[in-house]
Amino acid sequence: MMLGVTSILRCQGLIQNTVRLLNRNLHKEAIPVEWKKPEIGWTKLNFDGSCKGKLRKASIGGVFRNHKAEFLLGYAESIGRTTSVIAELAALRRGLELVLENGWTDLWLEGDAKTLVDIIVEKRQVKCAEAQRHVNHINLIIPELNNCIVTHIYREGNRAADKLAQIGHQLEKPKLWRHIPPNEVLQIVNEDAEGKIILRRR
């Protein structure tokens, strides 16, 4: 009888520990992520780079929206073989070139590659010469803007740019969308505008 009670107590202890562990993990995992609108008069660029497979085929994409979360401009392009870091930098650089072309002066730049965001914000030097060329170009454009902030967001809040980067893999030449996003991006843009929250699982 004592063995039975001991076993039951041990079992109950294991169950309680497992429940506690599961609760802790669930609490850890549930990070709410939401795309945020820029302030009135500001334009927000979300950018992303994509690198696929052993051949490291890369593409870039980005989306510009205003304070009403209205789609202003999207871009996508295949950029050949390279690394994911170069793809992210190329996506931001192309976005900034479009900023100058369109005369936007107050910019919120947002991407999901934290390392890259840190490089730009902290004006770090990088070892790769090609990456440094992109960084130098980006650092020349940013001072031309009236105001500019650069932030990191989890991928769940960068879905529109991510989708455009995926579209870039299928393109033979660079493509722009003005005022109306491609069908694959439309739902994401609408969900972002409505403030949809997506839980990030760590």
Uncertain runs are none
Helix content: 40-55%
Overall pLDDT confidence: 90
Through-space gap between termini: 44 Å
Could you give the count of β-strands? 8
CATH architecture of the largest domain: 2-Layer Sandwich
Shape: globular
CATH domain fold name of the largest domain: Nucleotidyltransferase, domain 5
Q: Please, how many domains?
A: 2
For the record, the CATH class of the largest domain is Alpha Beta
Oligomer: single chain
CATH superfamily of the largest domain: Ribonuclease H-like superfamily/Ribonuclease H
Tally of helical segments: 6
> What structural class is derived from the secondary structure elements?
alpha/beta
Instruction: Write the element-wise H/E pattern from the N-terminal end onward.
Output: HEEEEHEHHEHEHE
Q: Outline the biggest β-sheet.
A: 6 strands, mixed
Radius of gyration: 22 Å
Strand order of the largest sheet: 6-5-2-3-4-7
GO molecular function: nucleic acid binding; RNA-DNA hybrid ribonuclease activity
Protein name: RNase H type-1 domain-containing protein
Pfam family, one: RVT_3
